[in-house]
Amino acid sequence: MDLQKIQAESRKVADQVFSELAPKVEDIAREIAACLNAGGKVMMCGNGGSSSDAQHFAGELVNRFLMNRKPYAGIALNTDAAVMTSIANDFSYDEIYSKQVEGLGRKGDMLVGFSTSGNSANILRAFEVANEMGIQTVAFTGGTGGKMLERSDFVLLVSSSSHTPRIQEGHELMMHLICERVEELMEG
């Protein structure tokens, strides 16, 4: 693939984010701010490169995005190797996030899942548990959205590409927009 084609695909994704998905980004930022203001926390999860997106999002909430301010309650569920490997060993890899949601999550919290296919079994299971517990779910997904569509309260679907790198670029762009809006909403 040549650079001009990559550039055109990246622009197409960015155009979708700023046109079609912008109202959803705003809604999610408002829901996250409301969750945090009410004393809740935002949990994130993903696999592979999407696990890095989950960690990135948690870092922006806990530390700072653009403003020096108090930390917000955010946790990436894919960062504790002992917890994840014990669950995978004793139960299955499909349970590595759902057991953490069950143990750490409370009604009023939020769970954000990153999956470019929308079909990651461990994230789907975490969303099921979150739904049972009254925890709002936000899906960052791509292509056709996969099974996450039916298990999510909010969906950010990069449908303009089925190419994983372009989907992840869209996810990162929306994550940054959400972080910026959350700070504006929380800090006035």
How many beta-strand elements?
5
Structurally, the number of domains stands at: 1
Give the termini distance in whole angstroms. 44 Å
Main sheet properties: 5 strands, parallel
CATH superfamily caption: Glucose-6-phosphate isomerase like protein, domain 1
Give the CATH architecture.
3-Layer(aba) Sandwich
Shape: globular
Task: Figure out the total of helices.
Answer: 6
Helix content: 40-55%
The CATH topology turns out to be Rossmann fold
Order of helices and strands: HEHEHHEHEEH
Percent of residues in beta strands?
Answer: 5-15%
Low-confidence stretches: none
Task: Compile the SSE list and pairings.
Layout: H1 3-37, E1 42-46, H2 49-62, E2 74-76, H3 81-90, H4 98-104, E3 110-114, H5 121-133, E4 136-142, E5 154-158, H6 164-187
Parallel strand pairs: 1-2, 1-3, 3-4, 4-5
Helix pairs in contact: 1-6, 2-6, 4-5
Which descriptors would you attach to this protein?
188 residues, Rossmann fold, five-stranded parallel β-sheet, 6 helices
How would you characterize the overall build of this protein?
The chain has six helices and five strands; from the N terminus they run αβαβααβαββα. With 188 residues, the chain is an alpha/beta fold. It has one domain (10-187): Rossmann fold (3-Layer(aba) Sandwich). Strands 2-1-3-4-5 form a five-stranded parallel beta sheet, with helices on both faces. α4 packs parallel to α5. The N and C termini lie far apart (44 Å).
